[in-house]
Amino acid sequence: LAFYIRGCLRYTSDDDLKSMFVGTVMRKIKSRTWKKQRYFRLQEDCMTIWYKSKKAGNSHSTFSVGDVEAVREGHQSEVLLSIADEFPPDRCFTLVFRGRRGNLDLVAESAGEAQSWIKGIRKLIDNLENMGQREKLDQWICDWFKKADKNRDGQMNFKEVRNLLKMMNVDMNEHHALRLFTMADKSQSGTLEDDEFVLFYKMLTQREDVLRVFQEYSSDGQKLTLQDLKDFLREEQLHEDGVQQYALKLIERYEPSDTAKMLQAMTFDGFLMYLSSSEGSIFNPNMVDLYQDMTQPLCHYFISSSHNTYLLEDQIRGHSSVEGYIRALKRGCRCVEVDCWDGPNGEPIVYHGHTFTSKIFFKDVVTVLGNYAFKASQYPVILSIENHCSVEQQKVMAQHLTQILGDKLLKSPLDGKIPIGLPSPEDLKGKILLKGKKIVDDPLMGEVSDEEDTAEIDDDHHRNDSIRHRVKKSKQRLSKELSDCVVYCKSVHFSSFKHSQIHSKFYEISSFTESKARKHIREAGSEFVLHNARQLSRVYPSGLRTDSSNFNPQDMWNAGCQIVALNFQTAGVEMDLNDGLFSQNGHCGYILKPTFMRNTDERFDPENPQNRDGYKPLSLSVQVISGQQLPKVNIKEGSIIDPLVRVEIHGVPLDQAKQETRYIDNNGFNPVWHDTLQFTIHVPELALVRFVVEDYDKTSKNDFVGQFTLPFICIQPGYRHIHLLSKDGTSIPPSSLFVHVRITKLM
């Protein structure tokens, strides 16, 4: 496709990409026994990698470079480690995909070929990440063209265009489609090629909704003068300071016409580019990067936390893998968990005890932790150890931690002084903290908490057995070497808030099952908040959640619980909320709690938020205007979605609310609602707003189409685009919603 390939021409002199265009035979590795040759090559669009079996037959597979998150060199996956004795590391590499899709492990015929692919794919990923809005638009157009050009002749006849409309979720009558086709076919050849297809796409994607806003502020209906743009920014987007400079910056950044730039004006194309950019997004760009005070004590932050991090699936038969740690850490998770048991040949293993989940070595987990802990964030990682090992193997654990992690492992208080309070994330940058039991009194017989081990099935159904079970096991022996690795996160059993207030030390941390935590919130919400202003708490899923489902983390954040451990491998609303909360502040995995949750002089009760000092409720009004190119959920030929939008508020119980627009029949391409939804927010500092698009079905449950979740405090008012995410949290461009947001004080 000439108009896009022009953008790829600069690559034709690049040796790495040249060899990728020609293609290479490599081995695709799934296990020690599954190693099959495949022919790989880069397509002309510089975006698609095509591969097929060497055997005869037409079946082939493709994937987009845009789906590749990273390229790992050498034996950097479990699969490649398992065949390390067969193939040298300089011929091996791993493609890691976004979301929850599995890795692709490859072995090239030579080190040179491996390097060509490693360097080539990295260049293409960099190019994609540095693409401007206009180039991205060209890329989407190119993708659609390729999907529709079935006979690959570089032209598109009307039949192919009709099929394309179905693929794009457009239900358009034949007469209208033919009219657009004829208007775009400037050469009157009966087919669309190159720029004609671009014209067709632009006519198809014309944004009447944005044009209406543009014309409302344009003095002459053709452009926005500098004054017009300033009026729009003040009146609609509620910009107050430095509006002139900001308007000039937007013209410079998004206006494609040099003539308009010289006139300090913005055309409709520039206006649409601005509204589709990160600055026109609902998420305030100033809050995407690190903006919070990181020098407060550790207990003053919500900490992104994972439960049973080693599991990629369910809790009974699921696959254990170091990949679980890599994925969680790369998502900014700052507290990971290991269940350690005695393993063969004196080597501790990690798995979900008394189940059929597979096993991995503790030392491999520690190695991965050393390699990946600080790739996404420099702030400290807490390693939460559930210890079932004998003293001998605990010594081996301590040895691995010390030898593999070296200076990264915190083994003594900072500055060597006796601490008087928890250090801050800033103080602990680049450090790994161990959460576990410490020896008390008798150096051989240390008390070991069993709260993680006593699943809720015991709590709820066998209370008496549970007490006997706990007493019987509370004298497990603890190795001094492992105990010495615990500094600021000493695990203790929780008795009561009164007991904690009198006896607890700031470096002690208690773990609660979700039902225990809920009970405390119901019965003593404000005391729980106070407890969490002084020390750390961890909440983990019920033992009954054998399918690795998650509880709602919002309930726990409402009480100030910092370490709310979720099954990262399970997509759904709970992980959307977690991703939403931690999407601010540089994705660093630490979010500063509101002042009223950090101050021990205040009494904040999440069940009765009106009683707090500084109570200032707000009104949120969201006009859902339109949707753009929503993805198909049903791959059935010819099926078009009937989209509706639901806006959900997640926060304190008084704020929990949801409202929906009506559904639009048969239009996933450019549905228009103009429906306004109103909410009252009592505790804006804790609220998250989730926008969900569903395909309406009157006979069964609606199908999920896309969602976006963000903290209420990160919302930008005015006309905004919401760029939707898939079920597993990855972006699905160009799918978006266009909304108008207003936030006003109620008192």
Automatic annotation (TrEMBL):
It is found in: Cytoplasm; Endoplasmic reticulum; Membrane; Nucleus. It is a peripheral membrane protein. Glycans are attached at S187. SUPFAM superfamilies: C2 domain (Calcium/lipid-binding domain, CaLB), EF-hand, PH domain-like, PLC-like phosphodiesterases. Its cofactor is Ca(2+). InterPro entries: C2_dom, C2_domain_sf, EF-hand-dom_pair, EF_Hand_1_Ca_BS, EF_hand_dom, PH-like_dom_sf, PH_domain, PI-PLC_fam. Residues 459-468 have a biased composition (Basic and acidic residues). Substrate binds at residues 28-55, 435, 437, 511, 538. Ca(2+) 5 binds at D695, Y696, D697. It catalyses: a 1,2-diacyl-sn-glycero-3-phospho-(1D-myo-inositol) + H2O = 1D-myo-inositol 1-phosphate + a 1,2-diacyl-sn-glycerol + H(+); a 1,2-diacyl-sn-glycero-3-phospho-(1D-myo-inositol-4,5-bisphosphate) + H2O = 1D-myo-inositol 1,4,5-trisphosphate + a 1,2-diacyl-sn-glycerol + H(+). GO terms for cellular component: endoplasmic reticulum; nucleus; plasma membrane. Ca(2+) 4 binds at I640, D642, N666. It comes from the Eukaryota. Ca(2+) 3 binds at N308, E337, D339, E386. Residues 136-171, 172-207 form the EF-hand domain. Binds 3 Ca(2+) ions per subunit. Two of the Ca(2+) ions are bound to the C2 domain. GO terms for molecular function: calcium ion binding; phosphatidylinositol-4,5-bisphosphate phospholipase C activity. One of its GO terms (biological process) is intracellular signal transduction. Its main location: cytoplasm. Residues 482-598 form the PI-PLC Y-box domain. Residues 600-726 form the C2 domain. Keywords: Calcium, Cytoplasm, Endoplasmic reticulum, Glycoprotein, Hydrolase, Lipid degradation, Lipid metabolism, Membrane, Metal-binding, Nucleus, Repeat, Transducer. Its EC number is 3.1.4.11. PANTHER family: 1-PHOSPHATIDYLINOSITOL 4,5-BISPHOSPHATE PHOSPHODIESTERASE DELTA-4, PHOSPHOINOSITIDE-SPECIFIC PHOSPHOLIPASE C FAMILY PROTEIN. This is Phosphoinositide phospholipase C. It comes from Cyprinus carpio (Common carp). The lineage of its organism: Eukaryota, Metazoa, Chordata, Craniata, Vertebrata.
